[in-house]
Amino acid sequence: MILQAGCAKSSSMNILLIGSGGREHALAWKMNQSPLVDIVHSVPGNPGMDEIGPCFDISADDIDGLEKLTLQIEPDLVVIGPEAPLALGLADRLRARGFDVFGPSAEAAQLESSKAFSKARMADYGVPTARYGCFQRADAAKAFLSQFEPPYVLKADGLAAGKGVVIAKNRTEAESEIDAMLSGKFGAASKELIIEEFMPGEEVSLFVLTDGEGAIYLPAAQDHKRAFDGDTGPNTGGMGAYAPAPILDAICLNEIKTAIVTPMLEGMARDGRPYQGVLYVGLMMTPEGAKVVEFNARFGDPECQALMAGLSGDIVPALLICATGGLKGQEAAYESLLELDQFHPTACVVMASQGYPGAYTKGGAIKGIQAAERHKGVKVFQAGSDKDAEGKLIANGGRVLAVTATADNLDDAFDTAYSALETIDFPDGFYRLDIGWRVRRQSHSDR
Ligand code: AMP
Ligand code: GLY
Fold it and tell me: Which ligand places an atom closest to the C-alpha of 293?
């Protein structure tokens, strides 16, 4: 039976969502629109999520606390947003307690939490990616550099809050980075490092909802990782995104399904580590075809905000079938509940605190969200925000707001998002003015 609105058991679903970022605000907002859902509880949540349902003050990596809360709330579905609780085994624990969980096991989540594991699986399953080597000793790592031309790509094996990848321009820089990483720059996360071939090309993010066997492909999205205009400045978690990304046409998508996603899902299942949840496939569109840059075990942020705002249909049935199993052969039915063929072009621009991704100030006032949301098609998702003693909204993190707009085409979506941004009063914040430059330039030159 395919779960949809009107089905008696389902119209009072109680959901527990883990996380507090813009990604999770978007998920909470979207799930809360489902006619199947009665309540979305969030933990720890943020002021935006607090307007949707109750929030609980437990950290997303306190998995004992989260397990206890889940036993109290007895949700019909648990949705895990960030990577940290996945890597710590929250999904395994809650499944062992009999809950339906959207999110991979700790073993499967190693596709994100260990780059060495991820690269080894890609090699096992013949999935195209950059050539690489894996090292614990500096002398061997330095010798391996001779295999490649500069720039050199160096990656800490473990989770390093999005900072574990360094692209070194020359050999001297690469060698000093090797020394820094192996002597603990990222603690245990860089006890081992990966050196890989630099792949030229355009990046695109693909999100696959899966129960381990079946797969639903959401529209591709593009993120902007650098802090400043012109793709300059340090890498961030992501300063803006849009979907669909025209670079990934139907032919490319079919090749990626056949050469990358199907072998990964089949290989993981065959090896006893079925992957359940959302598989984030970070791709480089190289002259030789699409290759994997990385896998993540969660939705991207801010790609998720663009995807949730752009989806016309109900996401809850798809999340639930990924948690319970039984998707294979039923994909078309779930795609039609998601109304994938009616996805609205969506633009998302992030407002961050001055200084991000380095040290930034906290406590600055934020006004004008309601005015921004009066623009047609605009939703402002919150991330690093809080309320002060008087209940006024203030900044409390690096990335603070994600101003998201849907329209009939991407150009209009960006125009609307940028008009809405002008109504937000956040003196301590900044944002990029050129989010979507690839698609915007292209659509202007087509006229
Ligand atoms: P990762 O955390 O592996 O996604 O890497 C962070 C960013 O570094 C990616 O989004 C790319 O922009 C860049 N990057 C990582 N690996 C490569 C590579 N082999 N070639 C070119 N760029 C890369
Ligand atoms: N936006 C990139 C990420 O979520 O990793």
Answer: 1
Partners of 129 in beta bridges: 292
In-domain check, residue 123? no
CATH code of the domain in which 66 resides: 3.40.50.20
Residues 440 and 369 in one domain: yes
- What is the 71 CA–ligand 1 centroid distance (Å)? 39
265: which 2 tokens? 């899902």
Ligand 1 centroid–CA 164 distance in Å is 10
Give pTM, 2 decimals: 0.95
222 CA → ligand 2 middle, Å? 10
Residue of minimum CA distance from atom 5 in ligand 2: 300
- Domain at 298, CATH number: 3.30.470.20
**Domain range enclosing 88:** 13-106
Of 154, 179, 197, the one marking the end of a domain is: 197
> Last residue of a domain, which of 197, 229, 244?
197
Q: Measuring from atom 3 of ligand 2, which residue has the nearest CA? A: 300
> What CA–CA distance (Å, rounded) separates 409 from 138?
50
Cα 361 to Cα 428: distance, rounded to the nearest angstrom: 8
pLDDT for the residue numbered 162: 74
- Judged by its nearest atom, the ligand closest to the C-alpha of residue 198 is 1
Q: 165-219: per-residue pLDDT in tens?
A: 999 999 999 999 999 999 988 999 889 999 999 999 999 999 999 999 999 999 9
Q: Are residues 249 and 190 in the same domain?
A: no
Q: Which atom of ligand 2 is nearest to the CA of 241?
A: 1
Give how many domains the chain has, as a whole number: 4
Ligand nearest to the CA of 194: 1
b vs e for 108-144, b when ≥16 Cβ sit within 10 Å of the residue's Cβ? bbbbbbbbbbbbebbeebebbbbebbbbeeeeebbeb
